[in-house]
Amino acid sequence: MLDFSFCNPTRVLFGRDMFPQMEAHIPVGARVLVLYGGGSVVRNGTMARVLAALSHHEVLEFGGIEPNPSYETLMRAVALVREERIGFLVAVGGGSVIDGAKFVAAAALYEGDPWEILETRGSKIRAAVPLAAIPTLPATGSEMNGTAVITRGELSTKRAFRSEHVFPVFAVLDPTLTFTLPPRQIANGIVDAFVHVLEQYLTYPVDAPVQDRFAEGLLHVLLDVADVTLAEPENYDARACLMWAATLALNGLIGAGVPQDWSSHLIGHELTALYGLDHARTLAVVLPATLQVRRGEKRAKLIQYAERVWGVRDGTGDEKIDAAIGLTRAFFERLGFETRLSGYDLGRDDVSALLKALERTHGASYALGENRTVTPDVATAVFGASL
Length: 387
Ligand code: NZQ
Ligand code: ZN
Fold this sequence. Notes:
The protein is an alpha/beta fold. The chain contains 14 helices and 8 strands. Strands 1-8-5-4-2-3 form a 6-stranded parallel sheet, with helices on both faces. The two termini are 37 Å apart. The mean pLDDT is 98. The site of 5,6-dihydroxy-NADP (NZQ) has 34 residues, from helix 1, helix 4, strand 6 and helix 6.
């Protein structure tokens, strides 16, 4: 096992009746800004419940945060936080709203140009307005981590930052808030969480059976619950299961002490930045191609994944790897995902734009992934395998 330092400071209030407990975790007298997205939380009654639970605080609202939250919109929220001397943020929505609130929290107290936060990946953040997260879409794990991904339209770029200062103080995980999600978004959540686990699991062995078994457990749960939660949106137990699995998939626990890849995510971000694909849709294209191209360096864990997650017992190592990649692709396709660029009318001509975008984001001689082997040549091969 690798050395690690692990701390997750986010309190989780989990269940169908936890809203009344949240105000106790917000400083008395703090002016609160509630941030939300395009209005789903207003229409489905979540907002009214949040406001009722904050009745002892002075509350302002900021709506309109888009999927793949935009820097330009968030800077308007930053101005509001500064003008109104806001002391606490509450993000109500999907990962985009929670990520957006993290950026607002850090940018409001940042000395200098806030875009620098993205350029320096959060390393210069020294303080942030405290925030809480009320996720309405189980997917990103943003409610219990210190990461955010922000899009800047005028630069066609999507960038991540992380900082200990933007971990939510608390997260209210109420599975009933997800009942109104359209199937497309639930499927996105399942695939995003599944790939989060794989980015931390499918690397190379470091003798870390605790992390491996946690990761395999989460993958099994996601496979078990996928069909039920899609077919029965108001099945509380299934949604509770999905919600907790998605949170645990990216709250730092399974990634502590093991190598991590994340190259499928970073390549996928360029597909969203250039062509607007949903985040999870990018992963369903890039991950199978990545596993195919990099099967040599991931060989031992791919065989372990085939045996323990997909129950593939027979065949040579290569046959097991083929089966695992095929079953992963088939799982995504069963959930309604295209797993090739051609499914989005993208082809060879678009690959050069994607490669240039990767260079703009990571520099001309980037080297991504757990072994720093995902260079421009390997990224070219990954796009080639995803056509
Ligand atoms: O905007 P509203 O009207 O709220 O509608 C949203 C949005 O259109 C809708 N929605 C959310 N909850 C709903 C609902 N509709 C009905 N009922 C509900 N209960 O869903 C749509 C998509 O929302 P969004 O927040 O964009 O989705 P998601 O949670 O998948 O977040 C995606 C963003 O998170 C980033 C992605 O890059 C992307 O920008 N990620 C963040 C990560 C992190 N912070 O750790 C890690 C991830 O890998 C990911 O990169
Ligand atoms: Zn993701």
